[in-house]
Design goal:
The protein contains 25 helices and 47 strands. It has 951 residues and is of the alpha/beta class.
């Protein structure tokens, strides 16, 4: 429900009533098909919010091209019809009759058992920074504005130009004069932490987490667009590239020539009679430097909007100091009000992968709460018997979509329609105003039945979004959904050839002819239906694996937890407390007791995984415990094998008892070691084994861990000298508060470089650390009673497990998820999921959220009794197969294998459940025995021949 806000909420978990205010859209979403005819004729204009006000949009508009729903909306503040009762053009030109000027706001009441809050954030407005003169200097832009400048669909078409608010094709005289001064900048600067980590200009003491990475990304893309001669400089305090593969991206940027300047710039000065900008800053050695840049990008932080704060107060949700939803470490997506969960940036500043993890975790929390109601409101869809068309000659129906200006504005659709009628086997051909509309779908269903069509071609928009819709139409008409071919005459034709209509029309004809040639050779394909074993196997009994197991059990599924150690709890058992001050050992003990008491969770301690067979929904795993083997059947698997702390080989570790690791110090704190309070000096050394050539990743947790322990030592003995030797402090999000608190408590932070690491020595029995002070530029000697090494988190590199489930690992040894941003909790292998340190180093709250996210994704399979696989899979002709085994060796999904018995023993066969239809085996088959259903050789060559014939 778009354009809707929550105005009141009543009730409790399992029984909420939510009052909504739905604002009028003035466009009927049931009728609007997003053609754009209205916007094309609309005279009203307003700053385009999506493009950060750099260009104007119309009074009737779609927020952005991929908006959901892709329906137009009228801005009532600038629409001439709504403000002055004039115009009305959009109603006149709308072919779908979707305009409704009489639309009114509505008050609705919904009932829900649970709520998930994901209202997002707003970018910080830097107008308050008078020293940066954002409002008065046209070439000082925000990072959000620069994102739109870089975009090919943005106001400058992806070309980086100064004076970005001046139209590319100006019509007004003043704009034309300014446009003459537009140029491609040769020097661009990025200023970090604008609206973050700041208590002077704003109250946002927290780190916004994402700004360092997006600045690096923008600088790299800018160099790609403008060429290597573009000088990009990023001014920063700490470079916080703490995510998976982020450090490598940072290294790549440095190698690409992007300059990283550790300095916080105070002022931007305009150069008289020029649009250029003078930047003054202090270098590392204390030297005042002035540089001239043609553009400055302000890397703005993330804020909670005031209306979100009001909503939270209305709901009774506790907020943090930074106005984010308060959650505790062991319930990272549960707000202070039971039954209300939170996901995304409202829980704290975070990037896309962690937001996706949180959203799945919140769904898991809601799912556990509402599990008793699952399927109680489900309605079965009516099925239509499929018509058997085998042996029938092709009777092809061709439907060409006009789609308003999107297609018909460029392509001569009637000409393409009439041409389709001349093609072999085409029995029916027509054009539709909007093929994707419900009316057109219903009409298509009727026409298929009326004309006895047995194969369908639709020429319209991208099949990525529309193909499933048309396949559903075929099913409703009683046709096999694979007797269908879609032609993309929008993205691949009208959009790319918009300046050449004749060429676009000819290309549309070519594409339709190729599709008709292919679909004529298509046959009905059958999907494999699999029964799902509704139980799960969790490999790893650490805190993330236990979280996944507990949530799956709470949602009603049996879970087997395999742990190779004698106890569950993993690395969390070795930790003292969280950055929020929670006692970890107590929380872990509560979790262990809950797991052991849950009758649906079956623990297998001192157990290893010896073998895995099967596929999604039907796995068989062999467990080994003290020589005794057990076979477990399960529908899904969750890999939560964790990681471990590196045992350092530097800084004299192991040669002196006073040199310990962070986990050793945690153990001392947990044991209340009396010697700690008596110490006079303690030193923490960061990045021990991390961010180095042999291990080029950040271990993510070390900075906060050391800061928290440093504060504990200061509380024990305020007179103790505590030093933290660091390269970049990566206290992201609201962990920044701990960093600030440590500085206020007197913890001394000394930065070092990788090529000038601290030296630990023993002199006359004393422990001495030598390091160069980055402020003084002089070497410093610290005599310490204790040296704590923040050692790296290293993966287990379990290649045996990776081979069992056919899941990949990266060069560091961490498992590789399906998609770095959109699939962080699952693998490309169906039915196998991922969470915790096995994925990448992360703190407890993120590990728990990741465990819940993995459970949430697993439930999408477990909640179904059956699953269907795609029918576009490989097929072997055993009579031609030469048994060479190339397909077996090359398939990344282990779909091919050799037949063991019978007439075709030794020949290849394909498991259609494991096959992903990638065609790798087909392309590599030397004997031509392999074929890809739906993309067979004769079909592909038919398309090629159809194209060649035209030439």
């Amino acid at each position: 429900m778009t354009l809707s806000t929550v105005v009141d909420i009543r009730g409790e978990a399992g029984n909420f009533e939510i009052d909504l205010l739905k604002k009028p859209r003035y466009v009927d979403t049931q009728l609007c098909v997003g053609c754009g005819a209205c916007a094309e004729k609309c005279p009203g204009k307003a700053p385009d919010g999506y493009n950060m006000g750099l260009i104007d949009r119309k009074a009737i508009y779609v927020e952005y091209p991929q908006a959901v729903p892709l329906k137009y909306v009228i801005d009532p503040d600038i629409c001439l019809k709504l403000t002055k009762d004039k115009c009305g053009t959009c109603e006149e030109v709308c072919p779908a009759k979707a305009i409704n000027y009489g639309d009114k706001e509505e008050r609705l009441t919904l009932k829900a058992g649970s709520l998930i809050l994901s209202p997002g954030f707003k970018p910080y407005d830097p107008s308050i920074f008078d020293n940066y003169q954002y409002t008065s200097l046209p070439n000082v832009v925000t990072s959000m504005e620069f994102e739109r400048i870089l975009s090919a669909s943005g106001p400058t078409g992806g070309h980086i130009l100064t004076l970005p608010q001046v139209p590319v094709n100006p019509k007004k005289k003043k704009d034309r004069i300014l446009a003459e001064r537009k140029k491609e900048p040769k020097k661009i600067a990025w200023f970090q932490c604008v609206g973050s980590r700041d208590m002077n200009k704003c109250d946002n003491r927290y780190c916004s987490s994402v700004c360092c990475m997006y600045a690096i990304k923008e600088a790299l893309i800018a160099k790609e667009h403008a060429g290597d001669d573009l000088d990009c400089a990023i001014f920063y305090m700490d470079m916080r590239t703490h995510g998976k593969d982020f450090e490598r991206y940072y290294d790549r940027a440095k190698k690409s020539g992007i300059r990283f300047v550790r300095s916080r710039v105070h002022t931007i000065d305009p150069i008289p009679d020029s649009d250029d900008l003078r930047v003054s800053y202090i270098s590392d050695n204390g030297e005042m430097i002035q540089e001239v840049f043609e553009m400055v990008v302000l890397s703005v932080g993330l804020e909670t909007p005031p209306e979100t704060v009001e909503m939270a107060n209305m709901m009774g949700i506790d907020l943090t100091e930074g106005n984010f939803a308060y959650t505790n470490t062991f319930s990272p997506v549960e707000t202070s009000r039971r039954g209300i969960f939170v996901a995304g940036a409202f829980q704290g500043p975070k990037d896309i992968p962690q937001s996706v993890v949180d959203s799945s975790a919140a769904a898991a929390g809601a799912g556990a709460l509402l599990s008793s109601a699952r399927d109680t409101m489900t309605k079965a869809e009516e099925s239509v018997a499929e018509t058997n068309v085998l042996g029938e000659p092709p009777r092809i129906g061709v439907f060409i979509c006009k789609c308003g200006a999107n297609i018909a504005g460029v392509v001569d659709v009637p000409a393409v329609r009439d041409y389709a009628g001349t093609l072999p086997f085409v029995t029916y051909f027509t054009d539709n105003l909007y093929s994707c509309s419900q009316d057109s779908q219903d009409t298509m269903t009727s026409l298929i039945k009326e004309h006895n069509l047995n194969r369908i071609v639709v020429a319209a928009c991208t099949p990525k979004t529309h193909e499933p819709l048309f396949q559903e139409t075929l099913i409703k008409a009683g046709l096999n959904k694979y007797l269908f071919e879609m032609v993309n005459i929008r993205n691949q034709d009208s959009w790319v050839h918009k300046n050449n209509p004749d060429l676009a029309t000819q290309k549309a004809k070519d594409l339709v002819r190729m599709a008709v040639s292919k679909v004529a050779l298509m046959e009905p394909l059958q999907e494999v239906s699999l029964k799902v074993n509704q139980s799960a196997l969790v490999i790893g009994g650490g805190i993330s694996g236990l979280t996944a197991a507990r949530n799956l059990a709470d949602q009603g599924y049996d879970v087997h937890v395999v742990e190779r150690d004698a106890a569950i709890g993993g690395q969390a058992r070795k930790l003292y407390h969280t950055f929020q001050g929670e006692n970890i050992s107590e929380k872990v003990r509560v979790m262990e007791e809950a797991v052991k008491a849950n009758q649906r969770i079956h623990l297998h301690l001192n157990t290893s995984l010896e073998a895995v067979e099967g596929f999604v929904g039907n796995f068989k795993s062999t467990l080994s415990c003290s020589g005794e083997k057990t076979e477990i059947e399960h529908g899904v698997a969750v890999i939560a094998t964790g990681a471990s702390a590196l045992k350092p080989e530097e800084y004299l570790y192991g040669e002196d008892d006073r040199i310990i690791t962070s986990l050793d110090l945690d153990r001392m704190l947990m044991d209340s070691d009396p010697g700690l309070a008596k110490m006079n000096s303690a030193v923490f050394i960061q990045c021990v084994g991390s961010r180095e050539p042999q291990r080029p990743y950040c271990s993510r947790v070390c900075c906060t861990h050391s800061i928290d322990n440093a504060l504990v030592l200061k509380e024990m003995n305020p007179k103790m000298d505590v030093y933290i030797l660091y390269r970049d402090i990566r206290a992201y999000g609201e962990r920044e508060y701990s960093y600030q608190k440590a500085r206020e408590a007197g913890v001394i932070f000394i930065r070092y470089d990788l090529d000038a690491k601290p030296v630990v020595a023993i002199k006359d029995g004393s422990l001495v650390i030598q390091v160069k002070d980055h402020v003084l530029g002089l070497p410093v000697e610290i005599e310490a009673d204790l040296v704590t090494l923040a050692s790296a988190i290293v993966p287990n590199r379990d290649e045996k497990l990776a081979n069992f489930f056919k899941v990949p690992m990266n060069e560091d040894g961490f498992f590789v998820e399906r998609h770095a941003k959109l699939g962080p909790s699952e693998f490309a292998t169906d039915g196998v999921f991922l969470c915790g340190l096995a994925h990448y180093p992360k703190p407890i709250d993120e590990s728990i959220a990741h465990g819940m996210a993995a459970a949430s994704r697993a439930v999408t399979l477990l909640s179904r009794e059956t699953v269907k696989t795609s029918a576009n899979v490989a097929l072997v002709n055993p009579g031609v197969c030469s048994s060479c085994g190339v397909c077996v060796s090359i398939c990344p999904y282990s779909a091919p294998s050799f037949v063991k018995e019978g007439r075709f023993a030794g020949k290849a066969e394909i498991n259609p459940v494991l096959c992903k239809g990638c065609g790798l085996c087909v392309a590599s088959c030397r004997s031509g025995a392999l074929h890809l259903k739906g993309f067979d050789t004769n079909q592909i060559f038919a398309q090629i021949t159809a194209l060649v014939d035209a030439a």
